[in-house]
């Protein structure tokens, strides 16, 4: 077996041949700037002008990473590795004064901070799309970095296919200014990610390393370099040389390069070798900088004296990496001592004036600007912009079938239209859970042509979701299937990281991806540990839950367009019960009421145009208003005299159907607002109501469940109470509802419809008679539906709101 590591503590005996004077000087300058910024950040905090003091003091030689990485490599840096970024920016030709000013903006939380716009102090940049943002949640950058590494060859292939189809390259689609990660111009790019030694214990890191090792084992290309700086301390917890033991065991699988983190020549030489190994082998590699001192504690607020002896503190303080580096460089004749002294004076002045200047800059002051940056603006397809109708309509009615068959057909349709669309999951190649993806990997010719686009991952949701985010960074449009809702809990951290990236980066990073969360509600199989009647709905994610196959197809098209054209992240939640549902009242016979026609759309080529698909998904869907279901639209099921054996008529409440004659209901209508399989439950409940109630009950399907946006359909349905009494702005319902039942399939206390209640109430739109019936606030026993929202719950809700009327 190959042994790539030298004995611990070994330093390079001589100057590495590739280290020039200019390069040495750049490392020293980046280190000095890092040190000066750190000192000034503490002064700023003391006088109340700075808000972040975590010290990159001891890690100055990570500047070498920035010097040796290519600009086309992707980086995601540990919070202490500031000098790596400074050096990288110097390599890109940015003036030092600008770099310093921008970093000072981070410390003082100025709105002009190019990384976060004043949201946090973090490493990243505005100029290079390959500098990825890293949050303060330890190691959460690691699974995403592995995802980026896995995406390189796929993205190159998909880009080539897109080009052959005459589509724009990915980078231009989402408006990135540079060649995007893994895109054209990048020769053998690698994904670089760095952490501290304590972070190695975090599940996110272990998950990332496992995925990278797994790829190596399967001979799948995964050019990721994990760099770890080891200061043998994790805030106050000592390292106990655990990292050495971890890497010793790891070396069997992955090459480990080691350098003394205080020694420039050693760090330069080993970093160069580690990069070369990653670039040429296209496999994961470790780089370990040991013996890094941690000077001046973890942060300004750290009480070092509570856990370190006075001697240890003094030792760390005396262990000045910069001083040693400069001495080594001067002795080797690489830099001139006086030059460096002068440089230090300049840097100190630049840093001081940068803080003085930027502390005066405005800070974030309104909630609105923060909320507005949760996710990129919606992409509005041209037909929806025009209000639909007219000759743009190109959708037709296809075969009637169950939801799961339509889902599979939609996947085929989208993947055929756009080479960027990838389907990632667990067990998805053979057909997946409930056979939704059956036959997909064998497409387009039945011979396995899409086996690289329908990808199975091991059952680790952190690396699966991380891969999705990494693929999205490469310009691909991943659909990430989570087999059962409960499993998203295991990948939740990466999911939340993805959700906040647009916000954190002030709109710079976009995650165009769709999570397909399988198994929500009434999945009797597996009890609570598969289906747990709760949803993660962080700001920045559009969560939708459709009630039938036709709506699912139209809604999923819309979500895919949002991912591909706007870079928005959405989550489409399926109800297991609905996947194969055919009948609404099976106890009465085979009514076929839940079979729906496939909403066909006509592609540009089929339309007989010039044979050139103008742009994948957008070319196929943009002019098909009837083929899409946007986030504002509600589906209303008006009262009928019995639904048995009759296809339910659906009225869209999105304003397009204004010509529909309003349905007058004496005494005012009763609304049941619901989503997902709550729609079928509510329709069943309505059938058992007494005739007068039945005749006035509208079932309202509101598939968009995230709290952020109040769908305009709901606003129309619930006009402001005063306006409604003037007869304003009503559509289907002509008078104020006499009562509303919110029938929620999520569990009590976590029900998204309660957020709607509060939004409507605050806007003065909620009538006084309302109730919310949710799934039971407990856990689901195996094989029983007793905890789910039931017909009886809805009936009880109707009784509550009509009592005494
Ligand atoms: C997931 C998570 N757990 C805990 C923390 C709190 N925390 C912040 S910094 C830090 C120390 C991390 O140690 P290490 O990775 O060695 O970094 P360094 O010593 O370079 O600061 C900890 C535990 C966190 N930010 N994220």
TrEMBL record:
<dbReference type="GO" id="GO:0009083">
    <property type="term" value="P:branched-chain amino acid catabolic process"/>
</dbReference>
<dbReference type="Pfam" id="PF02779">
    <property type="entry name" value="Transket_pyr"/>
</dbReference>
<dbReference type="Pfam" id="PF00676">
    <property type="entry name" value="E1_dh"/>
</dbReference>
<keyword id="KW-0560">Oxidoreductase</keyword>
<dbReference type="GO" id="GO:0003863">
    <property type="term" value="F:branched-chain 2-oxo acid dehydrogenase activity"/>
</dbReference>
<dbReference type="InterPro" id="IPR001017">
    <property type="entry name" value="DH_E1"/>
</dbReference>
<feature type="region of interest" description="Disordered">
    <location>
        <begin position="381"/>
        <end position="401"/>
    </location>
</feature>
<feature type="domain" description="Transketolase-like pyrimidine-binding">
    <location>
        <begin position="401"/>
        <end position="581"/>
    </location>
</feature>
<protein>
    <recommendedName>
        <fullName>Transketolase-like pyrimidine-binding domain-containing protein</fullName>
    </recommendedName>
</protein>
<feature type="compositionally biased region" description="Basic and acidic residues">
    <location>
        <begin position="389"/>
        <end position="401"/>
    </location>
</feature>
<dbReference type="InterPro" id="IPR005475">
    <property type="entry name" value="Transketolase-like_Pyr-bd"/>
</dbReference>
<dbReference type="GO" id="GO:0007584">
    <property type="term" value="P:response to nutrient"/>
</dbReference>
<dbReference type="InterPro" id="IPR029061">
    <property type="entry name" value="THDP-binding"/>
</dbReference>
């Amino acid at each position: 077996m190959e042994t790539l590591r030298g004995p611990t503590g070994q330093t390079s005996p001589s100057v590495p041949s590739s280290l020039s004077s200019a390069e040495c000087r750049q490392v020293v300058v980046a280190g000095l700037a890092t040190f000066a910024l750190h000192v000034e950040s503490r002064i700023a905090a003391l006088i109340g002008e700075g808000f972040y003091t975590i010290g990159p003091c001891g890690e100055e030689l990570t500047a070498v990473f920035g010097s040796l990485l290519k600009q086309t490599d992707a980086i995601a840096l540990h919070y202490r590795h500031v000098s790596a970024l400074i050096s990288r920016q110097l390599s890109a030709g940015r003036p030092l004064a600008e770099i310093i000013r921008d970093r000072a903006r981070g410390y003082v939380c100025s709105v002009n901070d190019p990384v976060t716009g004043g949201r946090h102090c973090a490493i990243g940049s505005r100029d290079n799309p390959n500098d990825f943002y890293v949050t303060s949640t330890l190691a959460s950058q690691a699974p995403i970095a592995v995802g980026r590494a896995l995406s390189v060859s796929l993205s190159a292939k998909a880009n080539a296919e897109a080009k052959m189809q005459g589509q724009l390259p990915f980078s231009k689609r989402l408006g990135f200014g540079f060649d995007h990660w893994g895109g054209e111009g990048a020769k053998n790019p690698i994904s670089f990610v760095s952490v501290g030694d304590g972070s190695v214990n975090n599940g996110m890191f272990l998950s990332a390393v496992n995925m990278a090792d797994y790829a190596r084992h399967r001979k799948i290309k995964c050019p990721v370099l994990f760099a770890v700086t080891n200061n043998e301390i994790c805030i106050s917890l000592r390292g106990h040389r655990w990292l050495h033991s971890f890497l010793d065991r790891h070396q069997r699988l992955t090459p480990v390069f080691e350098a003394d983190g205080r020694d420039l020549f050693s760090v330069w030489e080993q970093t160069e070798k580690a990069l070369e190994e990653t670039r040429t082998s296209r496999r994961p590699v470790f780089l370990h900088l040991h013996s890094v001192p941690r000077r001046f504690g973890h942060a300004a607020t750290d009480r070092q004296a509570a856990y370190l002896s006075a001697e240890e503190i003094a030792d760390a303080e005396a262990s000045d990496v910069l001083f040693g580096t400069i001495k080594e460089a001067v002795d080797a004749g690489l830099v001139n001592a006086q030059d460096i002294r002068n440089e230090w004076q300049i840097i100190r002045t630049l840093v001081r004036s940068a803080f003085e200047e930027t502390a005066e800059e405005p800070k974030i002051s309104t909630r609105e600007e923060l909320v507005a940056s949760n996710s990129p603006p919606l992409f509005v397809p041209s037909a929806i912009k025009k209000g639909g109708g007219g000759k743009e309509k190109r959708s037709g009615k296809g075969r009637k079938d169950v939801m799961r068959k339509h889902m599979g057909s939609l996947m085929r349709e989208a993947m055929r239209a756009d080479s960027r669309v990838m389907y990632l999951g667990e067990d998805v190649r053979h057909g997946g859970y409930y056979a939704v993806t059956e036959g997909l990997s064998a497409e387009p010719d039945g011979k396995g042509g899409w086996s690289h686009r329908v990808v199975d991952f091991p059952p680790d949701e952190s690396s699966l979701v991380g891969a999705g985010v990494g693929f999205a960074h490469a310009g691909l449009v991943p659909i990430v299937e989570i087999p059962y809702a409960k499993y998203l809990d295991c990948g939740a951290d990466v999911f939340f990281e993805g959700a906040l990236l647009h916000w954190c980066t002030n709109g710079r990073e976009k995650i165009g991806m769709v999570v397909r969360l399988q198994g929500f509600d009434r999945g009797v199989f597996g009890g609570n540990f598969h289906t747990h009647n709760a949803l993660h709905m962080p700001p920045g994610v559009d969560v939708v839950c459709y009630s039938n196959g036709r709506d699912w197809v139209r809604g999923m098209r819309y979500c895919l367009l949002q991912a591909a054209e706007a870079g928005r992240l959405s989550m489409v939640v399926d109800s297991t019960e609905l996947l194969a549902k055919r009948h609404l009242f099976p106890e009465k016979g085979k009514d076929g009421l839940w079979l729906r026609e496939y909403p066909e759309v006509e592609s540009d080529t089929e339309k007989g145009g010039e044979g050139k698909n103008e742009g994948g998904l957008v070319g196929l869907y943009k002019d098909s208003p009837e083929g899409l279901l946007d986030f504002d639209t509600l589906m209303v099921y008006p009262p009928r005299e019995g639904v048995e054996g009759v296809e339910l008529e659906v009225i869209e409440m999105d304003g397009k159907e204004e010509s529909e004659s309003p349905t007058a209901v004496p005494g005012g209508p009763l609304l049941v607002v619901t989503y997902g399989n709550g729609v079928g439950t509510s329709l069943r409940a309505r059938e058992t109501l007494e005739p007068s109630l039945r005749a006035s009950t509208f079932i309202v399907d509101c598939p968009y469940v995230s709290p952020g946006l109040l769908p305009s359909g709901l606003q129309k349905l619930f006009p402001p109470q005063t306006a409604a009494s003037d007869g304003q702005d009503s559509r289907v319902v002509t008078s104020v509802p006499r009562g509303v039942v919110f029938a929620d399939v999520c569990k009590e206390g976590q029900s998204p419809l309660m957020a709607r209640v509060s939004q409507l109430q605050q806007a003065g739109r909620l009538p006084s008679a309302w109730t919310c019936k949710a799934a039971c606030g407990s856990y689901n026993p195996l094989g029983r539906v007793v905890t789910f929202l039931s017909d009886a719950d809805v009936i009880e809700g109707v009784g509550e709101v009509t009592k005494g009327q």
